[in-house]
Amino acid sequence: MADLYLITGGAGFIGSNVADEILKQGGRVRIFDDFSSGFRENVKALGAGVEVVEGDLRDYDKVREAMDGVSYVCHQAALRSVERSVDDPLSSDAVNVHGTLHILTAARDAGVRRVVYASSSSVYGDSTELPKHEKLTPSPVSPYAVSKLSAELYCRVYSKLYGLETVALRYFNVFGPRQSPSSQYAAVVPLFMRAAIDGVALEIHGDGKQSRDFTYIDNVVQANWRSFHSEGVAGEAFNVACGERHDLLEIADLVGKFVGRPLELNHVDSRRGDVKHTEASIDKICSMMGYEPTVGFVDGMRKTFDALQAGAN
Ligand SMILES: NC(=O)c1ccc[n+]([C@@H]2O[C@H](COP(=O)([O-])OP(=O)(O)OC[C@H]3O[C@@H](n4cnc5c(N)ncnc54)[C@H](O)[C@@H]3O)[C@@H](O)[C@H]2O)c1
Fold it and tell me: What domains can be seen in the chain, in order of their start residue?
Protein backbone atom coordinates (compact mmCIF):
# COMPACT_ATOMS: atom_id res chain seq x y z
CA MET A 1 0.00 0.00 0.00
CA ALA A 2 1.15 3.58 -0.70
CA ASP A 3 2.70 5.59 2.15
CA LEU A 4 0.31 7.62 4.28
CA TYR A 5 1.22 11.29 4.81
CA LEU A 6 -0.37 13.19 7.67
CA ILE A 7 -0.63 16.88 6.77
CA THR A 8 -1.41 19.11 9.72
CA GLY A 9 -2.93 22.36 8.52
CA GLY A 10 -3.85 20.62 5.26
CA ALA A 11 -6.91 22.84 4.84
CA GLY A 12 -4.68 25.90 4.73
CA PHE A 13 -2.69 27.56 1.98
CA ILE A 14 0.62 25.67 2.04
CA GLY A 15 -0.70 22.37 3.43
CA SER A 16 -3.33 21.96 0.72
CA ASN A 17 -0.78 22.68 -2.02
CA VAL A 18 1.62 20.09 -0.57
CA ALA A 19 -1.30 17.63 -0.41
CA ASP A 20 -1.86 18.09 -4.16
CA GLU A 21 1.76 17.11 -4.83
CA ILE A 22 1.71 14.06 -2.55
CA LEU A 23 -1.43 12.78 -4.28
CA LYS A 24 0.19 13.41 -7.67
CA GLN A 25 3.22 11.37 -6.53
CA GLY A 26 0.94 8.45 -5.58
CA GLY A 27 0.92 8.94 -1.78
CA ARG A 28 -2.14 8.76 0.49
CA VAL A 29 -3.14 11.87 2.43
CA ARG A 30 -4.76 12.41 5.83
CA ILE A 31 -5.41 15.98 6.91
CA PHE A 32 -5.45 17.16 10.51
CA ASP A 33 -6.98 20.60 10.87
CA ASP A 34 -9.28 22.59 13.14
CA PHE A 35 -10.37 24.86 10.24
CA SER A 36 -9.53 27.98 12.25
CA SER A 37 -7.84 29.61 9.24
CA GLY A 38 -8.12 26.77 6.70
CA PHE A 39 -11.02 26.14 4.34
CA ARG A 40 -13.20 23.09 3.68
CA GLU A 41 -13.18 23.99 -0.05
CA ASN A 42 -9.39 23.48 -0.10
CA VAL A 43 -9.91 19.94 1.20
CA LYS A 44 -12.81 19.27 -1.16
CA ALA A 45 -10.64 20.33 -4.11
CA LEU A 46 -8.20 17.51 -3.27
CA GLY A 47 -10.80 14.86 -4.11
CA ALA A 48 -12.66 12.12 -2.30
CA GLY A 49 -9.65 9.93 -1.43
CA VAL A 50 -8.37 12.29 1.25
CA GLU A 51 -9.09 11.47 4.90
CA VAL A 52 -9.86 14.31 7.29
CA VAL A 53 -9.40 14.34 11.06
CA GLU A 54 -10.94 17.50 12.48
CA GLY A 55 -9.08 18.41 15.65
CA ASP A 56 -6.92 20.88 17.51
CA LEU A 57 -3.16 20.41 17.94
CA ARG A 58 -3.64 21.20 21.61
CA ASP A 59 -5.72 18.01 22.01
CA TYR A 60 -3.06 15.32 22.48
CA ASP A 61 -5.49 12.36 22.29
CA LYS A 62 -6.79 13.59 18.93
CA VAL A 63 -3.22 14.04 17.64
CA ARG A 64 -2.33 10.48 18.69
CA GLU A 65 -5.45 9.16 16.97
CA ALA A 66 -4.50 10.96 13.73
CA MET A 67 -0.99 9.43 13.77
CA ASP A 68 -2.19 5.83 13.33
CA GLY A 69 -0.53 4.15 10.32
CA VAL A 70 1.31 7.33 9.24
CA SER A 71 4.73 7.14 7.50
CA TYR A 72 5.46 10.86 7.02
CA VAL A 73 4.20 13.98 8.78
CA CYS A 74 4.07 17.33 7.04
CA HIS A 75 3.50 19.71 9.97
CA GLN A 76 2.06 22.97 8.65
CA ALA A 77 -0.63 23.77 11.23
CA ALA A 78 0.12 26.85 13.29
CA LEU A 79 -1.20 30.23 14.28
CA ARG A 80 0.48 32.27 11.57
CA SER A 81 1.24 36.02 11.57
CA VAL A 82 3.68 38.06 13.59
CA GLU A 83 1.03 40.66 14.35
CA ARG A 84 -1.38 38.05 15.69
CA SER A 85 1.28 36.78 18.10
CA VAL A 86 1.96 40.30 19.36
CA ASP A 87 -1.77 40.63 20.10
CA ASP A 88 -2.02 37.19 21.72
CA PRO A 89 1.31 35.49 22.58
CA LEU A 90 -0.26 32.80 24.79
CA SER A 91 -2.22 31.09 22.03
CA SER A 92 0.77 31.33 19.63
CA ASP A 93 2.86 29.43 22.14
CA ALA A 94 0.17 26.86 22.97
CA VAL A 95 -0.50 25.95 19.33
CA ASN A 96 2.91 26.49 17.72
CA VAL A 97 5.18 25.13 20.44
CA HIS A 98 3.11 22.78 22.58
CA GLY A 99 1.12 21.62 19.56
CA THR A 100 4.37 20.73 17.80
CA LEU A 101 5.54 18.84 20.86
CA HIS A 102 2.31 16.82 20.67
CA ILE A 103 3.03 16.04 17.01
CA LEU A 104 6.63 15.01 17.68
CA THR A 105 5.78 12.83 20.66
CA ALA A 106 2.89 11.09 18.91
CA ALA A 107 5.04 10.63 15.77
CA ARG A 108 7.88 9.14 17.82
CA ASP A 109 5.52 6.70 19.55
CA ALA A 110 3.81 5.71 16.28
CA GLY A 111 7.12 4.91 14.54
CA VAL A 112 6.75 7.66 11.91
CA ARG A 113 9.66 7.78 9.44
CA ARG A 114 10.07 11.56 9.21
CA VAL A 115 8.44 14.81 10.33
CA VAL A 116 8.88 17.84 8.07
CA TYR A 117 8.16 21.01 10.03
CA ALA A 118 7.14 24.42 8.68
CA SER A 119 9.46 26.92 10.35
CA SER A 120 9.93 30.53 9.33
CA SER A 121 12.48 33.13 8.23
CA SER A 122 11.24 35.17 11.20
CA VAL A 123 13.63 33.16 13.42
CA TYR A 124 16.49 35.33 12.05
CA GLY A 125 14.77 38.42 13.47
CA ASP A 126 16.82 41.56 13.75
CA SER A 127 20.20 40.15 12.75
CA THR A 128 21.26 42.57 10.01
CA GLU A 129 23.45 40.25 7.94
CA LEU A 130 22.17 39.51 4.44
CA PRO A 131 21.63 37.02 2.98
CA LYS A 132 20.43 35.01 5.96
CA HIS A 133 22.14 31.64 6.16
CA GLU A 134 21.45 28.75 8.51
CA LYS A 135 24.65 29.23 10.54
CA LEU A 136 23.52 32.68 11.76
CA THR A 137 22.47 32.84 15.39
CA PRO A 138 18.68 33.28 15.42
CA SER A 139 17.48 36.51 16.99
CA PRO A 140 13.66 36.50 17.14
CA VAL A 141 11.82 39.79 17.69
CA SER A 142 8.23 38.55 18.04
CA PRO A 143 6.39 35.87 20.00
CA TYR A 144 5.61 34.18 16.66
CA ALA A 145 9.32 33.93 15.82
CA VAL A 146 10.10 32.60 19.30
CA SER A 147 7.41 29.95 18.87
CA LYS A 148 8.73 28.89 15.44
CA LEU A 149 12.30 28.68 16.72
CA SER A 150 11.30 26.78 19.88
CA ALA A 151 9.43 24.19 17.85
CA GLU A 152 12.39 23.92 15.50
CA LEU A 153 14.67 23.19 18.46
CA TYR A 154 12.26 20.51 19.66
CA CYS A 155 12.49 18.93 16.19
CA ARG A 156 16.26 18.82 16.43
CA VAL A 157 16.20 17.41 19.94
CA TYR A 158 13.72 14.68 18.96
CA SER A 159 16.04 13.68 16.11
CA LYS A 160 19.07 13.50 18.38
CA LEU A 161 17.45 12.08 21.48
CA TYR A 162 14.87 9.67 20.11
CA GLY A 163 16.03 9.05 16.54
CA LEU A 164 12.83 10.53 15.08
CA GLU A 165 13.92 12.03 11.75
CA THR A 166 12.90 15.68 11.47
CA VAL A 167 13.55 18.42 8.92
CA ALA A 168 12.74 22.09 9.59
CA LEU A 169 12.02 24.33 6.60
CA ARG A 170 12.43 28.07 7.16
CA TYR A 171 9.97 29.53 4.67
CA PHE A 172 10.54 33.07 3.44
CA ASN A 173 7.20 34.85 2.69
CA VAL A 174 5.30 32.32 0.67
CA PHE A 175 2.62 33.43 -1.81
CA GLY A 176 0.39 31.80 -4.41
CA PRO A 177 -3.09 30.43 -5.13
CA ARG A 178 -5.23 29.48 -2.07
CA GLN A 179 -3.56 32.08 0.17
CA SER A 180 -6.52 33.85 1.69
CA PRO A 181 -6.78 37.65 1.52
CA SER A 182 -9.72 37.70 3.91
CA SER A 183 -8.43 37.33 7.46
CA GLN A 184 -7.49 40.20 9.75
CA TYR A 185 -3.93 38.82 9.61
CA ALA A 186 -3.76 38.13 5.86
CA ALA A 187 -0.40 38.20 4.09
CA VAL A 188 0.62 41.18 2.00
CA VAL A 189 0.48 39.69 -1.52
CA PRO A 190 -3.17 38.52 -1.49
CA LEU A 191 -4.15 41.64 0.48
CA PHE A 192 -2.66 43.99 -2.15
CA MET A 193 -4.16 41.99 -5.00
CA ARG A 194 -7.63 41.89 -3.42
CA ALA A 195 -7.52 45.64 -2.74
CA ALA A 196 -6.37 46.34 -6.32
CA ILE A 197 -9.16 44.21 -7.83
CA ASP A 198 -11.73 45.87 -5.53
CA GLY A 199 -10.39 49.36 -6.36
CA VAL A 200 -9.50 50.34 -2.80
CA ALA A 201 -6.25 51.91 -1.54
CA LEU A 202 -3.42 49.59 -0.49
CA GLU A 203 -2.43 49.88 3.15
CA ILE A 204 1.36 50.18 3.39
CA HIS A 205 2.98 49.81 6.80
CA GLY A 206 5.83 52.32 7.12
CA ASP A 207 7.63 53.58 4.02
CA GLY A 208 7.04 50.42 1.97
CA LYS A 209 10.76 49.90 1.50
CA GLN A 210 10.78 46.81 3.70
CA SER A 211 11.76 43.89 1.53
CA ARG A 212 11.24 40.14 1.60
CA ASP A 213 12.46 37.06 -0.24
CA PHE A 214 9.00 36.35 -1.67
CA THR A 215 8.70 32.68 -2.59
CA TYR A 216 6.12 31.21 -4.93
CA ILE A 217 4.23 28.20 -3.53
CA ASP A 218 5.50 25.68 -6.13
CA ASN A 219 9.04 26.16 -4.79
CA VAL A 220 7.85 25.47 -1.24
CA VAL A 221 5.96 22.36 -2.36
CA GLN A 222 9.13 21.12 -4.07
CA ALA A 223 11.15 21.71 -0.88
CA ASN A 224 8.63 19.70 1.16
CA TRP A 225 8.68 16.79 -1.26
CA ARG A 226 12.49 16.71 -1.29
CA SER A 227 12.52 16.91 2.53
CA PHE A 228 10.51 13.72 2.88
CA HIS A 229 12.85 11.72 0.69
CA SER A 230 16.39 13.21 0.77
CA GLU A 231 19.13 11.31 2.59
CA GLY A 232 21.38 12.82 5.28
CA VAL A 233 19.12 15.74 6.25
CA ALA A 234 17.58 14.58 9.56
CA GLY A 235 17.84 17.08 12.41
CA GLU A 236 18.69 19.94 10.03
CA ALA A 237 17.03 23.30 9.27
CA PHE A 238 16.94 24.74 5.72
CA ASN A 239 15.99 28.06 4.19
CA VAL A 240 13.29 27.81 1.53
CA ALA A 241 13.29 30.85 -0.74
CA CYS A 242 14.44 32.21 -4.08
CA GLY A 243 17.53 34.09 -2.90
CA GLU A 244 16.45 37.61 -3.90
CA ARG A 245 14.33 40.34 -2.31
CA HIS A 246 11.57 42.70 -3.39
CA ASP A 247 10.02 45.59 -1.47
CA LEU A 248 6.36 46.41 -0.95
CA LEU A 249 6.41 49.40 -3.32
CA GLU A 250 7.65 47.09 -6.07
CA ILE A 251 4.72 44.74 -5.43
CA ALA A 252 2.27 47.64 -5.49
CA ASP A 253 3.76 48.75 -8.81
CA LEU A 254 3.55 45.26 -10.33
CA VAL A 255 -0.03 44.71 -9.17
CA GLY A 256 -0.90 48.14 -10.60
CA LYS A 257 0.39 46.91 -13.96
CA PHE A 258 -1.79 43.79 -13.68
CA VAL A 259 -4.95 45.88 -13.15
CA GLY A 260 -3.84 48.47 -15.72
CA ARG A 261 -3.73 51.57 -13.47
CA PRO A 262 -1.49 53.01 -10.72
CA LEU A 263 -2.74 52.08 -7.26
CA GLU A 264 -3.51 54.48 -4.45
CA LEU A 265 -1.25 53.90 -1.43
CA ASN A 266 -2.26 54.64 2.15
CA HIS A 267 0.81 54.72 4.42
CA VAL A 268 0.12 53.72 8.03
CA ASP A 269 2.35 52.99 11.07
CA SER A 270 4.94 50.21 10.91
CA ARG A 271 3.89 46.96 12.53
CA ARG A 272 5.33 45.85 15.87
CA GLY A 273 7.58 42.82 15.62
CA ASP A 274 8.24 43.22 11.88
CA VAL A 275 11.78 42.99 10.51
CA LYS A 276 13.03 45.36 7.81
CA HIS A 277 14.60 43.03 5.24
CA THR A 278 14.86 39.34 4.56
CA GLU A 279 16.82 37.57 1.88
CA ALA A 280 17.92 33.97 2.02
CA SER A 281 20.97 32.06 1.11
CA ILE A 282 19.59 28.88 -0.44
CA ASP A 283 22.99 27.19 -0.83
CA LYS A 284 22.33 24.60 1.87
CA ILE A 285 19.04 23.26 0.53
CA CYS A 286 20.34 23.38 -3.07
CA SER A 287 23.44 21.39 -2.25
CA MET A 288 21.95 18.92 0.27
CA MET A 289 18.59 18.28 -1.40
CA GLY A 290 19.00 19.34 -5.03
CA TYR A 291 16.33 22.03 -4.54
CA GLU A 292 16.03 24.61 -7.29
CA PRO A 293 13.37 27.34 -7.47
CA THR A 294 11.33 26.81 -10.64
CA VAL A 295 8.95 29.79 -10.51
CA GLY A 296 10.37 33.30 -10.05
CA PHE A 297 8.82 36.38 -8.48
CA VAL A 298 7.13 38.01 -11.48
CA ASP A 299 5.75 34.76 -12.95
CA GLY A 300 4.53 33.71 -9.52
CA MET A 301 2.83 37.06 -8.97
CA ARG A 302 1.07 36.78 -12.33
CA LYS A 303 -0.16 33.24 -11.58
CA THR A 304 -1.36 34.33 -8.13
CA PHE A 305 -3.18 37.37 -9.51
CA ASP A 306 -4.86 35.33 -12.25
CA ALA A 307 -6.01 32.74 -9.71
CA LEU A 308 -7.37 35.41 -7.35
CA GLN A 309 -9.16 37.19 -10.17
CA ALA A 310 -10.69 33.90 -11.31
CA GLY A 311 -12.06 33.48 -7.79
CA ALA A 312 -9.77 30.62 -6.77
CA ASN A 313 -8.81 32.00 -3.34
N1 LIG B 1 2.70 31.72 4.44
C2 LIG B 1 3.94 32.11 4.72
O3 LIG B 1 4.48 33.03 4.12
C4 LIG B 1 4.73 31.40 5.79
C5 LIG B 1 6.04 31.84 6.05
C6 LIG B 1 6.78 31.20 7.03
C7 LIG B 1 6.25 30.12 7.71
N8 LIG B 1 4.96 29.72 7.45
C9 LIG B 1 4.43 28.57 8.20
O10 LIG B 1 3.85 27.68 7.27
C11 LIG B 1 2.74 27.00 7.87
C12 LIG B 1 1.53 27.08 6.97
O13 LIG B 1 1.17 28.44 6.78
P14 LIG B 1 0.00 28.91 5.79
O15 LIG B 1 0.43 30.17 5.19
O16 LIG B 1 -0.43 27.78 4.95
O17 LIG B 1 -1.14 29.27 6.86
P18 LIG B 1 -2.69 28.91 6.88
O19 LIG B 1 -3.27 29.74 7.97
O20 LIG B 1 -3.27 29.00 5.51
O21 LIG B 1 -2.67 27.38 7.31
C22 LIG B 1 -2.56 26.97 8.65
C23 LIG B 1 -3.54 25.81 8.86
O24 LIG B 1 -3.40 25.33 10.19
C25 LIG B 1 -4.70 25.14 10.76
N26 LIG B 1 -4.59 25.29 12.21
C27 LIG B 1 -4.28 26.44 12.88
N28 LIG B 1 -4.30 26.19 14.21
C29 LIG B 1 -4.58 24.87 14.37
C30 LIG B 1 -4.74 24.03 15.49
N31 LIG B 1 -4.61 24.49 16.75
N32 LIG B 1 -5.03 22.73 15.30
C33 LIG B 1 -5.18 22.24 14.03
N34 LIG B 1 -5.06 23.00 12.92
C35 LIG B 1 -4.77 24.30 13.09
C36 LIG B 1 -5.56 26.21 10.10
O37 LIG B 1 -6.95 25.94 10.14
C38 LIG B 1 -5.01 26.22 8.68
O39 LIG B 1 -5.67 25.27 7.86
C40 LIG B 1 2.57 27.63 9.24
O41 LIG B 1 3.21 26.80 10.19
C42 LIG B 1 3.31 28.95 9.14
O43 LIG B 1 3.80 29.38 10.40
C44 LIG B 1 4.20 30.33 6.51
Answer: 4-175+217-243+279-293 (3.40.50.720)
